[in-house]
Each structure stands twice: as structure tokens, then as C-alpha cells.
Amino acid sequence: MKIFAAEQIYAADKTTIKKQNITSDVLMERAATRLFEWLHLRLQGNPVKIHLFCGIGNNGGDGLVLARQLKEEGYNIAVYVVRYSEKRSDDFSTNLERLKKREVTPDVLEEGDALPTISKDDIIVDAIFGLGLNRPPDDWVVALFEHLHRSRAFTLSVDIPSGLFTDRVPSDKKAVVKANHTLTFQVPKLVFFLPKTGIFTENWEVLDIGLDQEFLSTAETDYELIGKNEVLAFYEPRKKYSHKGTYGHSLIIGGSYGKIGAVHLAAKACLHTGSGLVTAYVPQCGYTPLQTNLPEAMVITDAAEKHISKIDFDIEPTVIGLGIGMGKDTKTVNALGQFLDVNKTPLVIDADALNILSENEEFLDKLPPRSVLTPHPKELERLIGKWDGDFQKLEMAKSFSQKYDCVLVIKGSNTLTIYDGKGYVNTTGNPGMATGGTGDVLTGMVTGLIAQGYPPLQAAIFGVYMHGEAGDTMVEDTGYQTLTASKLIEGIGEAFLDLFAVDDDVLADEE
Ligand SMILES: NC(=O)C1=CN([C@@H]2O[C@H](COP(=O)(O)OP(=O)(O)OC[C@H]3O[C@@H](n4cnc5c(N)ncnc54)[C@H](O)[C@@H]3O)[C@@H](O)[C@H]2O)[C@@H](O)CC1
Ligand SMILES: Nc1ncnc2c1ncn2[C@@H]1O[C@H](COP(=O)(O)OP(=O)(O)O)[C@@H](O)[C@H]1O
Ligand SMILES: [K+]
């Protein structure tokens, strides 16, 4: 699913209004009707008090239409106009008049006014600011946001939590409404997925308001949301007359004394993702544990006992996964530099190999084109430097990826893969995966996909999706705290099966 920038959404509105020959007022009515239907379905006439806080722009207009529809259905509402500006949008004004005709006169809130009492069992609808926010809200509006937050009432934001910009991180966390849920129009917004802005609405849902499909499908966007539909397009079925040679040979290079487990996890994940053959290249201390515990993998050992001192092998791997548990011993750093001088095999680079690249920038020029780099945020900072906010981080990551022609997988709650100026936002995964070794599993999975012939970008996007899906499957049995990297590997099979599972509700519809 595409993620549109705010100006593209405004353009989609305009096109829709023109092509469907409707007024903006009709579009607002349609949007707010979707909000009403959502609430009505859940509340079924429940007399709970609903406080609707409406700004003076079109977001506020949506709130006023919703108030009118709730009133007509007999809901217990209180409506407030948050008058943060003298200006009013036309559709706001039209709908204020319509509401007044239904004998609902909103309380106008201005600076210095007493704030309404809200009980924690009430519902707040936040329609104060929408996509039009262009500067931080005034102090008294921030005080209102804090008042809403203190009430602990369920807060439903319209389109976007008020105070959240679409293109930058707010400098003051208090200046954003903390939504329990956001109902966003037509398309998800990028800020829902970034670590410093996603925290304002952990739950969100898209409401289809019938914007012009042609516009939506032809517009180019900088970001895309990756779900099952998107990755299914990449999936390559296993062929009947194939053999292990068909699916490539992965070489996993890494490990040091005390960190052989990382290689074990990556090699095992690689096998579970379908690599035809997997060999691990480890220091000698890794030989026995790997041969004992992972019989499917072959093992080549370095001359040194405890760390990699020279990367030297006589096989011809299809792809190499590099860096997990490898450490940064001087000999290892030299070995990596010498290896990169001669290597032509596609690479997936993680962990200590990334840190070595950060400290030896000249190594970056030696990477084969479209190498996949999988940093967590700290490793990313070492690679690309410090950033000021998520948006600058993304721009810096795009430049880095372009400069070195690499696929950059920025791991996190919503892992973001960057290549060729575009970002792919993953939707699977859960906080149970915030545990040691899960990154090693991802390295193994992406390596295993490249081994089978997936191009690096697709392997990265698909691998990240499947990794998160494996986590989501396993967490149902383990709970968040007990999910481990080994368990995650057990979930990879389920993640593949789930790609082709028919949803229960689809089956129910057919019955
Ligand atoms: N396609 C869609 O997504 C649709 C969107 N609609 C609604 O329209 C909204 C956008 O409406 P608007 O463009 O009117 O934007 P807002 O409703 O966010 O209004 C912002 C208004 O406040 C002013 N302003 C911005 N920041 C301010 C600040 N800090 N202090 C004081 N004033 C400030 C702006 O100049 C503007 O007049 C969307 O978020 C959505 O709720 C719907 O009405 C119809 C369809
Ligand atoms: N809160 C979370 N939600 C979803 N995925 C997460 C979360 N925390 C971590 N992950 C995923 O777990 C993995 C952790 O990788 P990493 O930090 O490299 O761990 P390690 O080095 O211990 O293997 C990444 O793929 C990341 O996206
Ligand atoms: K809002």
C-alpha cells in the first residue's frame, strides 16, 4: 500500500472532487460518515459521554459532521470548538451552522477558558488539527492536550493525532494528542511508523472515503507499506524438478569466542528460509558446537581458535551473510578488508561487520553493488552519522544508500528498507522480538532468499516481512516475554504457510 505525503492527499482530494463532480462539503460528509459508522458499530447506542473537540479547519469540520450524525442517532455528546485561530474553513462554517440548526451549540474554548470535566469512562474525539498543522500549537492548546491526556478517557483521533506534523518530529512531546486509536482517511501516514512519531498512536485504521482510484494507483510515492499482498508478488514457488543446487549455497561468516550462537541462529534461519546449501565459516571454537547442533550445515574453520583472522574458503557461494558475532579484533578487521578487496559475491552485512565498515569508511567503496546492510538504530548512527529527528534520518539513509548503492534495512518496530530513494515500511513483528539474536535470524533469512535467486531489494523486503510474521505467529504461543530467537526460527515455516492461507472471514463470506 502506498504511503502518500500530505500534499499528495490534498491533490487526491481535489482530483476526486473534480472527477466525481462533488463539492468538498460532500467529501467531508462522506469522510465523517465513515467515522460515524465506525463508532456506531462499536457503541450500538451506548449512552457513554462523547466529547468532540473540533478545530476550525477541515479536521474540525469532520468533527462537527460526526457530532451532528451522533446527535441524530441519540448519542450523549458534548461539542467544543477549539478556537486557536480567527480563520475558519468554509466547510467548517457550513457544518457549524448545520449543527446549530439541530440545537447543538458547541462551547467555544479560547485561551484562559476553564476546561471541561472529562471522566475516564468517557470518550474523546480529537478533531482539533489535521494535516493542515503548520506550526506548533499555542501553549494554551498544549495545556488542553495535557488535560485530555490526564483524563485517561479513550481518545479517538480523526485522521492524525492533533499536533503531529506529517513531515517532522514535534520538538515538544506534550504538544501532541496521545491517541488510543486513529481513524485516518484513505491512506496511512508515514508518521504512524517512525519511532519518534508512531508513539502518539500505536493503533490506527484506514477509512476508505472513496478518493479517486486512478489518482491513487498512478501516483508515485516515496514510501510504501509492506503487507502480505505486497510480498506475495515476490514469492517464487519451489519447482518440482529442482534440487538443492537450484536454491543456492549460502555462506555465513561470523562468530568469535562466546558468540558462536549468532552464527548458529543465522545458519539455521537461512536453512529454514529455503537455501539449498548452507556453510558456516567460523573460528575453530565454533566447529564442534555447530557440527553437533546443526547437522544440516557444513562448517569451514578459520586458522585461528577464537576469532576470524583470514577469510579464506574454497567453495563458490551464491551469497554471503557476514558479520554476526564476529567481533572487531584487529586481525578480523584486516581479514575483512582483504576479503572485500577480492570478493565479488553478493553480501548481506550485519552487526560487527557494519561497525567495522563504520570505522573503516574506505571499506564501503569495496562493497559489491546492491549489498544488503541490516543495521539496528545504533549501528545505523555509526554508519551514517547522528541525525536530528526521524525525517532527517531517512534523508541521510537514502543518500547513504545511493552513494554506496546498497540496500539499507533499518531495523526497529517498523523496519524500513531503503533503496533507490524509496522506503518500504514493514508491518509485521512485535515487541517480543526485542531480544538478543533476532537480528541474526534476519541476516540468515535475507541471505537464504538471495541464495534462491531473489534480487537483493526483494529479498530484504520479503525477509523482513517473513521475519516479523514468524514472530507474530510464535508470540501467540509464547507471549512477548518468552519469545526467543530460536523460537522465531521455528515460526518461519508458519510464515510461509500463512502467505497462502485463506482468511477465515473470506471463507465465511463464501459459505
Ligand atoms: N482526503 C482527506 O483526507 C480528507 C480530509 N479532510 C480533513 O481535512 C483535514 C485537513 O484540513 P485543513 O487543511 O483545513 O487542516 P486542519 O484542519 O488541520 O486546520 C488547520 C488550520 O489551522 C491553521 N493552523 C495550522 N497550524 C496551526 C497552529 N499551530 N495554530 C493555529 N492555527 C494553525 C491552518 O492554517 C489551517 O487553517 C484532514 O486532516 C481531514 O481531517 C476531510 O474533511 C475530507 C477529506
Ligand atoms: N518492538 C519491536 N517490534 C517489532 N520488531 C522488533 C521490535 N524490537 C526488535 N524487533 C526486531 O528484532 C530484530 C532485532 O535485531 P538486532 O537489534 O540486530 O538484535 P540482535 O543483534 O540481538 O540479533 C530486528 O529485526 C527488529 O526489527
Ligand atoms: K486530529
From TrEMBL:
AMP binds at K411, G412, S413, N414, T415, G439. In the C-terminal section; belongs to the NnrD/CARKD family. In the N-terminal section; belongs to the NnrE/AIBP family. Binds 1 potassium ion per subunit. Residues 227-499 form the YjeF C-terminal domain. InterPro entries: Carbohydrate_kinase_pred_CS, CARKD, Nnr, Ribokinase-like, YjeF_N_dom, YjeF_N_dom_sf. Homotetramer. K(+) binds at N59, D126, S162. This is Bifunctional NAD(P)H-hydrate repair enzyme. The lineage of its organism: Bacteria, Pseudomonadati, Bacteroidota, Flavobacteriia, Flavobacteriales. It comes from the Bacteria. HAMAP family: NADHX_dehydratase, NADHX_epimerase. The gene is nnrD. Residues 9-217 form the YjeF N-terminal domain. (6S)-NADPHX binds at residues 58-62, 130-136, 159, 262, 325, 376, 440. It catalyses: (6S)-NADPHX + ADP = AMP + phosphate + NADPH + H(+); (6R)-NADHX = (6S)-NADHX; (6R)-NADPHX = (6S)-NADPHX; (6S)-NADHX + ADP = AMP + phosphate + NADH + H(+). It holds the Pfam family YjeF_N.
